[in-house]
Write a structure and sequence with these properties.
300 residues; Arc Repressor Mutant, subunit A; D-Maltodextrin-Binding Protein, domain 2; 5-stranded mixed β-sheet; 11 helices; elongated; WH-like_DNA-bd_sf; DNA-binding transcription factor activity; LysR_subst-bd
Length: 300
């Protein structure tokens, strides 16, 4: 009898490009994956993978088995999501978030998921937007929460919330001036998120659109690093306004009024359109109701 474990093994070996990757995805060993594939090959008396090659390439019959596995696994997941009660649903869900979400409301989201689905294991991954997009495409995560910067038909996107940023610097860095025109920012070193960051992409494009080009800038994918450099007086940066209010009030940072103001960074929860899941949809809804960039290191 064919088992779902055998079908999952074939499916993930193909999706992830190797037996070791499939073993990591399915929380088992590479030898266990090989054994399950071998059992299928013996059952149908035909090889599913061409073992003369270094890569895990399917045979013609293997292609048929992969398509069958994909269809049956999708039907299984849909059925489980629809009929199982939340308190008995058992799944591993991998959620990718960017650094600002991890610094603020991720613990609250994790607590909400555990309250609704106590037997679901959540694995959070923190990375830059571009890296998380690639992980989602490679089926290494199930859901990603990040700035809305990637218009891709392979993704199902749901609005979650928005973060407000402001230009900040060490008090006194710009003299007594409290107000600047955007083009005057080019007089100073700009500390910016790099192009792996969704926020970095958003604001780089926006600055170019209003004609601001800086010959003196420093880029990083880390929000924490940019906060530290700004506090140290290394330049001016756009930083999340609300969650850093205590640093502003304590005199570590100064908010500058710059015209025109920065646009909001809108966040979305995205998943792959070819892997629908009611559980993932429910988690995206929880993200929408718990999104809050107003306080750093929130308690779940």
């Amino acid at each position: 009898m064919v088992t779902f474990k055998q079908l999952e093994s074939v499916f993930w070996v193909v999706q992830l490009g190797g037996f070791a990757q499939a073993a990591n995805k399915l929380y088992t060993t590479q030898s266990a994956i090989s054994k399950r594939v071998h059992e299928l090959e013996e059952m149908f008396d035909t090889p599913l993978f061409d073992r003369t090659l270094r890569a895990a390439r399917l045979t013609e019959k293997g292609e048929e088995m992969f398509l069958l596995a994909k269809r049956l696994l999708e039907q299984r997941d849909t059925g489980l999501d629809q009929f199982q009660r939340p308190e008995i649903l058992e799944r591993h869900i991998r959620i990718g978030v960017t650094e600002l979400t991890a610094m603020t409301w991720l613990p609250r989201l994790m607590s909400a998921i555990q309250a609704s689905y106590p037997r679901v294991v959540i694995e959070p991954y923190v990375d830059a937007s571009a890296m998380l997009r690639d992980k989602l495409l490679a089926d290494e995560v199930d859901l990603v929460i990040m700035p809305d910067m990637f218009n891709d038909q392979r993704f199902l996107s749901r609005p979650v919330g928005a973060a407000e940023h402001a230009w900040m610097c060490k008090p006194g860095l710009v003299g007594r001036r409290q107000r600047l025109r955007a083009h005057e920012l080019a007089q100073f070193r700009l500390l910016m998120q790099d192009n792996r960051s969704g926020t970095g992409l958003l604001y780089s494009r926006w600055l170019r659109s209003i004609g601001v080009e800086s010959a003196n800038s420093l880029a990083s994918s880390s929000v924490v690093a940019l906060i530290g450099l700004t506090v140290a007086g290394m330049g001016i940066s756009y930083l999340p306004r609300q969650c850093l209010k205590e640093m502003v009030e304590s005199g570590k940072l100064q908010i500058l009024t710059v015209t025109p103001a920065l646009p909001l960074t809108r966040y979305v929860a995205i998943s792959k359109t070819d892997r629908p899941s009611r559980l993932v949809d429910s988690i995206a809804a929880l993200a929408q109701s718990h999104c809050d960039f107003g306080e750093i290191f929130q308690v779940g």
